[in-house]
Design goal:
There is one protein chain. It contains 13 helices and three strands; from the N terminus they run ααβαααββαααααααα. The chain has 249 residues and is mainly alpha-helical. It folds into two domains: 175 residues, no CATH class; 57 residues, PGBD-like superfamily/PGBD (Muramoyl-pentapeptide Carboxypeptidase, domain 1, Orthogonal Bundle). Strands 1-2-3 form a three-stranded antiparallel sheet. The chain is elongated and about 65 Å long. The two termini are 34 Å apart. The relative contact order is 0.14.
Amino acid sequence: MDFKGRAKRLSDGAIGTAARTLACDPAAIHAVIAVESQGGFDADGRPRMLFERHYFHRLTNGKFSASHPEISAPGWGGYGAASAQYDRLARAIACDRSAALRSASWGMFQIMGDNHALAGFGDVEAFVCAMMDSEDHHLAAFVAFACAKGLQGSLQRQDWRAFARVYNGPAFARNRYDARLAEAYARHARLKIGSHGAAVRALQARLDISSDGIFGPDTDAALRRFQRSTGLVVDGIAGPATRAALRLG
């Protein structure tokens, strides 16, 4: 299995729909994407994936830790380069396929395979196939997981410490996970010259201009035209009022 599916990007308006389901600001969802992955697929069209050897150790009761310490160990870490993750996964699959797939975090929101049921899937194989297919599936899995874990309130309030404690684990402060979410939210809540990423692509699609994900002079000019035509403050910043007028997701 080469883990290559259709690798379809997010549909226009998908994040807006998800945000309405979660009753949160779309920028909150964009913040999670920015911190977790910055996009659901790698350059080869495979879901972004991180193999967690401590998960594999736990799920296999340490059976392979002596012989394969690079993929099975009681402590977290030892990840290696991003480019090495699928090689590590392949070695783990050779030992125990189900445990290997469950021991990796997948896609745009880096949801653990072991959480497939909370993400709305009957088994890990179906979950991984969905991760291979489209970012819309990544987003749907996140919405299901967030609802199952009761994360709607923390997303609505942008209470990043509360969100991080559940989503990233009790040691979230070690890597400033909550602080990085807050910083990402601030960037996506007010898009302007220099902004980039999925939120900018969504803005450009709403403005009906070329969607390259880079907020440059052309995007600035188009945004100002929209603000002028709708009676908004013409400042070239997609803040809350402008994003609401654009129905931006």
